[in-house]
Inverse folding.
């Protein structure tokens, strides 16, 4: 069992977090750059793994994430290049941005039965698993959950997903995204794939944060919210707006929603042509 001195000096090789400690969170950065760390045993009481907790632990071998774990924060396992497989417990609801960034040797990811509430595909795009999937169906969880291929365009979602976050669809070859009515929030630039040109957003989305529409390649947007639904939208302008981009661009928006019609698109450097939802392609 490792000592505090070993952790501080980055000489730790094996870590066991005892169940009796009643620990619910691994603190952010606590094992950052522990290059000699090979094994970790988590307690059943664990609920979250913090920012950069195991970042750059490039000798860390495969481990078991405990049942009861709910969240993995940004860059938690960044650059853990010795990892080859991950199995997520069914209790996981959130895997944040870049949590498995540069884990290039992960070839197996098991997400069957996960209760995902926030989707971010950016977590896996640099893994061997993700690159192999690009030639065919990209499957998150058991069965048909999300598709993004070089020959296909539309996506389907599990009903548990309530929000989309940064880089959720940063997928080469994905030209169209259809967001179902079950999604409620869109956080940041979720539609950043270089080939995406059309996004169809379901009627359940009530809040969109800055840069939701930041991908300059997307020229067609469909919003299915009712006309009288008051949307929670950011203030237009640099660094805050729905679609602020330094270069001006033109888009077509199909919507009946009054909040979107009243939005100050010009401040976001966007020339928006608003058309009735009934005319949507």
């Amino acid at each position: 069992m490792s000592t505090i001195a070993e952790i501080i000096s980055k000489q730790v090789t094996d870590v066991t977090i005892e169940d009796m400690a009643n620990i619910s969170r691994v603190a952010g950065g606590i094992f950052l750059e522990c290059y000699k760390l090979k094994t970790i045993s988590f307690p059943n009481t664990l609920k979250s793994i913090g920012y950069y907790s195991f970042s750059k632990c490039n000798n860390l071998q495969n481990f078991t994430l405990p049942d009861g774990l709910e969240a993995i924060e940004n860059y938690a396992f960044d650059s853990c290049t010795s990892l080859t497989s991950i199995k997520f417990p069914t209790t996981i609801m959130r895997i944040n941005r870049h949590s498995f960034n540069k884990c290039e040797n992960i070839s197996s990811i098991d997400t069957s039965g996960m209760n995902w509430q926030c989707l971010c595909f950016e977590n896996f795009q640099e893994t061997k698993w993700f690159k192999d999937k690009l030639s065919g169906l990209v499957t998150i969880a058991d069965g048909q959950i999300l598709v993004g291929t070089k020959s296909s365009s539309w996506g389907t979602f599990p009903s548990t997903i309530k929000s989309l976050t940064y880089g959720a669809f940063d997928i080469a070859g994905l030209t169209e995204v259809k967001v179902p009515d079950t999604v409620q929030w869109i956080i940041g630039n979720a539609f950043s794939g270089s080939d995406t040109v059309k996004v169809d957003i379901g009627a359940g989305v009530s809040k969109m944060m800055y840069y939701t529409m930041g991908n300059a390649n997307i020229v067609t947007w469909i919003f299915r919210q009712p006309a009288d639904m008051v949307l929670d939208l950011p203030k237009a302008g640099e660094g805050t707006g729905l679609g602020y981009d330094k270069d001006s661009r033109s888009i077509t928006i199909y919507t009946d929603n009054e909040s979107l019609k009243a939005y100050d698109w010009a401040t976001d450097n966007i020339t928006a042509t608003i058309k009735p939802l009934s005319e949507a392609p």
